[in-house]
Design a protein that fits this description.
Length: 178
Amino acid sequence: MAWPGASDERGPHAGPPGGPEAATGAASAGDVVLPLTKARVAAVLEALDYPLIRDRNDDLGAMWAQAIFHIYLLGPDESVLQVRGSWHRRLALERLGEVLMLVDHWNREFVGPKCYVRVLDDGRLSVVAEVSTPLGAGVSDNQLTVLLQRGIGQGMRMMRDLEIRYPDPAAQPPASLS
């Protein structure tokens, strides 16, 4: 399975993205701009070999050990692509101040994704990373691939930072019984 946001390994002198046809101006099938649809999003996620899931509302998503990402088509014409990732663990409400500082720092230092904290019904904290892109004019398969890779990949950076800041207590050796 490919890691979200994996970079292009072509090197600095590999020519234009898209291969030789890009240099001649000829469009490939992946460059044709079409309306955004759930079927196209699902096809791109499958082509990327991302672990595709569908929830009970038929919304799309992808799941990794550290996070679940939902992909929504928003707006009256479903032309806004939103990639929303939620960290797999919940934090105690008493950590709200420190988590808000971490998220605020993230939002100041990085262009994306937008990160925020939600207080859930049970009083625990959920950290969310989200990117929304309006695509009313349509999107090519190549563009959609990049948008999904970047949305998930950038969100995974935030999830990695959370894993470092709040390591899984069950992964730590037990305290001495002395």
